[in-house]
Amino acid sequence: MKLSTLPVALVQDRHQGSTEANLALIEQRVGEAAAQGARLVLLQELHNGAYFCQHQDVCEFEQAEAIPGPSTERLGALARKHGVVIVSSLFERRGTGLYHNTAVVLERDGSIAGKYRKMHIPDDPGFNEKFYFTPGDLGFHPIDTSVGRLGVLVCWDQWYPEAARLMALAGADLLLYPTAIGWDPNDDQAEKDRQREAWILSHRGHAVANGLPVLSCNRVGHEPSPASLRNAGRAGIDFWGTSHVLGPQGEFLAKAGEQPELLLADVDLRRSEDVRRIWPFLRDRRIDAYGDLLRRYRD
Question: How far apart are CA 135 and CA 120, in angstroms?
Answer without folding.
Answer: 6
